[in-house]
Amino acid sequence: MADLGRLADALRQHGGEVREAGPDDVVDGVPATAVARPASAEGVAAVLREATAQGMATVARGAGTALDWGAPPERADLILDTTGLDRLVEHGAGDLVVVAEAGLPVSSLLETVRGAAQELVVDLPPGRLVGGSTVGGLLSTGASGPRRLQRGGVRDLVLGATVVLADGTRASSGGKVVKNVAGYDLAKLLTGAYGTLGIVVRAAFRLHPVRPDRAFVVGSGPLADVAARARDVVASQLAPAAVEIDRPAGSDVAEVAVLLEGTGDAVGQRAGAVAGLVGGRVQDGPPGWWAELPGVSVGGSSRVEPVETGVSTSLTSGGSTGGVPRVEPVETRGVTLAKATATLTGVAALLTAARDAEQRYDVGIALRGTAAGVLHAAVTGTPEATALAVGHLRAAAPSPREGTVTVLRASREVRTAIDAWGPVGGLDLMRAIKRQLDPGRNLAPGRFVGGI
Amino acid sequence: MGVSESGLSGVVAELVGALGVERVITDRQRRRTYECDGLAAYRVIPGVVVLARDADDIAAAVRACARHGVPFVARGSGTGLSGGALPHAEGVLVVMSQMRAIREADVANQRAVVEPGVINLHLTAATSPDGYYFAPDPSSQSVCSIGGNVAENSGGAHCLKYGFTTNHVTGVDLVTPGGELVEIGGKAPDPPGYDLLGALVGSEGTLGIVTAATVRLTRLPQEVRTLLAAFRTMDDAGAATSAIIAAGVVPAAIEMMDALAIEAAEAAVHCGYPAGAGAVLVVELDGPAADVAGEFDDVVRLCEAAGAFEVRVAADDDERALIWKGRKSAFAAVGRISPDYIVQDGVIPRTALPLVLRQIAELGESAGVRVANVFHAGDGNLHPLVLFDGAVEGAVDRAEAVAGGILDLCLEHGGSITGEHGVGADKAKHMPRMFTADDLDTMQAVRCAFDPDGISNPGKVFPTPRLCGERPGRHQGAHPLTESGVAEVF
């Protein structure tokens, strides 16, 4: 049994609190025993050292917007609530760098750096952003959005991180300069690790200047056409900031939306050229589904506020005050969320496979994401049918090197019916890393690939 | 794990049997060819050299090493500047330069699959007819290998905008230090699981040997424009750089040279930089033509406002090449004005540039040592060239003291000890100044996951090896196992 008194003692000199878990302290169906909310990195280290000494399994939680992603943990004795670590440590505007604690909401970070006409180009889904998604959650889930086409995912933007290991060791890697090759890039290793290697307490990111002007080009057509046109834009010299594809469930047509960023006339000229390539129209704002995960209602176009142009707003601008399209997550139970990757040319096969799977297995598959080959699929159907559909999507790629499908959020029944992760290259190395950094499996056991 | 003569001779016997005598070099004179990489201050004749043809050769060599507890080191073109490919006297040097096939240039998917010995610039040459190139471009791109780029996470002048090698690798085939061939990632983005590629790229050969890499191909920009701006002082050039960044422009490159570096470049390649310049900036913009035209005008205006007394715009590819020639030849050119020099590779937050440059100048003056500065101004990656004459007594020590002092300045300002050359053998001793013992122990724990016997490029990156299996913690003095003769420090 957990000794909460000793956990609280561990925190005493560092601030923060420990309490018994309540009915809401559940990780994807797994109830916790206790919740610790430290207020500093030292506090995180002290609590983890004590929890691990007691043999507890610890799961980190930020705002909880993606707490049901990844497999449910085998146990969640302690929830380590990171929201007490909410400082923006440093914004080096002249250096285009920001350093923040793990519990800081991404929307707050965005708001601060927007004051210097800068942004962290992660394009977190508006649903998560509005839900208070934190810097730690952003990293742990390895988020990326539309503009990864040019800027990469969060793993490409993280410059350094400080992590607390299961035994309480605090370790930093990288730094706060853009160019740095000293030592191993552990920040990348922790990105997308779902808190199974350590608990990130602080991270430094590269920022980009907000481009003064933007334009969207939106077109639609049959699946194969849309994929081909999206590819043409990606392969053009028009330097699109994003090329997104959206295929609603049950549809034979898809929409393509291209974002161009730059300065006034130049953006207008490029938008015109893109419109020619995709056969679409130029518009100021994004389509209502922009950057959102599929399977989340965007409330209809009438409720989408227009995104203003100019440096004062950006698509990722935070909270309810910016120019973010208003979205309200709908009931997501029964919807399985998967991440599907493909090569540029493989995107077409993925779209077609989604349509085939629907007809074969009586499921709905909404598919949305970048033409660069990182899409999300929302699958609706019985567990058996969902499992078959995921298998069908996996088969769309000739090999795992050319595309993978991993299930992020699903019911127990779906998880029982299918291997949620699919084939993973280098699994033995991953297990070895886990053994080195968390030999007692005290961090989110069972949550990651291969039962890690 | 201990290393013994019998270990190495056992490996040699196995390798000769498996690969044939012509691929296994034991002759001392021939082994000497490989005694150093681009950092000639460190020289070690390798115990034996293997000329690898394919992944099977590499796996065979590594397996033999693993069986006998013998260290191995991979080497590409040997252009590294930190001794990352420095051989081991009792170990195997695996030479990759015969693995030069571009297996696939999959332009439709913007990917190429290459063998590690492929020369960086050759990939660009092979794909530019189709409108693509390989973006990471270290200054040695005409000779360095892509395997070496992956090992060192190489940068170059254009990584401010386009990122480093780590942003351009989507898959590798790896021979682990246990001799197993593992495929990680591929042409599709975001392979599931831990970001092993993130850990591998830039790990300087300490986690295994990459036998093939899948890399991004980048679309050639529609337009490239380059200018050279001459300033009276470094401060003015620094102010121009800040103004450009503050205006929200992300140039493809912003490079700065000081008067001494300009003097050296002129002596070597007669690049004709403006006379009387205390500093020059090379600024390159690329992208869609309409955007580049507008932003280029802004950059010219900002340079003039910061005090540029001459701005030259390259009218064609030849003029562009001449502007770059001065910059790219600067390191080698320093040999014209000084018998010896140390190239430093520190990084600082860009806004600290004016202050740190002044401090470097003071450091040099007080030690009586000349320092030439050539650097990537956009990302704060300094390459001070510390000049000395090895024939003068005490000159080497003074130069090394200044070079070390420059690194201290970088760390004081929140920077790094290396921006692109790597830690290698050269800077391993500096790692504890940048990282705590816990930081280094954690990195070494990752190393132990890949290389439990510590045989993959030992002696690089980390100041002291950690024996896998031991608990991390403070160690003072010699390691007990080393002292008792049970283990040897590689």
UniProtKB/TrEMBL annotation, chain A:
<dbReference type="GO" id="GO:0003824">
    <property type="term" value="F:catalytic activity"/>
</dbReference>
<keyword id="KW-0285">Flavoprotein</keyword>
<dbReference type="Pfam" id="PF01565">
    <property type="entry name" value="FAD_binding_4"/>
</dbReference>
<dbReference type="InterPro" id="IPR016169">
    <property type="entry name" value="FAD-bd_PCMH_sub2"/>
</dbReference>
<dbReference type="InterPro" id="IPR006094">
    <property type="entry name" value="Oxid_FAD_bind_N"/>
</dbReference>
<dbReference type="InterPro" id="IPR016166">
    <property type="entry name" value="FAD-bd_PCMH"/>
</dbReference>
<dbReference type="GO" id="GO:0071949">
    <property type="term" value="F:FAD binding"/>
</dbReference>
<keyword id="KW-0274">FAD</keyword>
<protein>
    <submittedName>
        <fullName>Glycolate oxidase FAD binding subunit</fullName>
    </submittedName>
</protein>
<feature type="domain" description="FAD-binding PCMH-type">
    <location>
        <begin position="27"/>
        <end position="210"/>
    </location>
</feature>
<dbReference type="InterPro" id="IPR036318">
    <property type="entry name" value="FAD-bd_PCMH-like_sf"/>
</dbReference>
<dbReference type="InterPro" id="IPR016164">
    <property type="entry name" value="FAD-linked_Oxase-like_C"/>
</dbReference>
From TrEMBL, chain B:
<keyword id="KW-0560">Oxidoreductase</keyword>
<dbReference type="InterPro" id="IPR016169">
    <property type="entry name" value="FAD-bd_PCMH_sub2"/>
</dbReference>
<dbReference type="InterPro" id="IPR016166">
    <property type="entry name" value="FAD-bd_PCMH"/>
</dbReference>
<dbReference type="GO" id="GO:0003973">
    <property type="term" value="F:(S)-2-hydroxy-acid oxidase activity"/>
</dbReference>
<dbReference type="Pfam" id="PF01565">
    <property type="entry name" value="FAD_binding_4"/>
</dbReference>
<dbReference type="InterPro" id="IPR006094">
    <property type="entry name" value="Oxid_FAD_bind_N"/>
</dbReference>
<dbReference type="GO" id="GO:0071949">
    <property type="term" value="F:FAD binding"/>
</dbReference>
<dbReference type="InterPro" id="IPR016164">
    <property type="entry name" value="FAD-linked_Oxase-like_C"/>
</dbReference>
<keyword id="KW-0285">Flavoprotein</keyword>
<feature type="region of interest" description="Disordered">
    <location>
        <begin position="471"/>
        <end position="490"/>
    </location>
</feature>
<dbReference type="InterPro" id="IPR051914">
    <property type="entry name" value="FAD-linked_OxidoTrans_Type4"/>
</dbReference>
<dbReference type="InterPro" id="IPR016171">
    <property type="entry name" value="Vanillyl_alc_oxidase_C-sub2"/>
</dbReference>
<feature type="domain" description="FAD-binding PCMH-type">
    <location>
        <begin position="42"/>
        <end position="220"/>
    </location>
</feature>
<dbReference type="InterPro" id="IPR004113">
    <property type="entry name" value="FAD-bd_oxidored_4_C"/>
</dbReference>
<keyword id="KW-0274">FAD</keyword>
<protein>
    <submittedName>
        <fullName>Glycolate oxidase</fullName>
        <ecNumber>1.1.3.15</ecNumber>
    </submittedName>
</protein>
<dbReference type="InterPro" id="IPR036318">
    <property type="entry name" value="FAD-bd_PCMH-like_sf"/>
</dbReference>
<dbReference type="Pfam" id="PF02913">
    <property type="entry name" value="FAD-oxidase_C"/>
</dbReference>
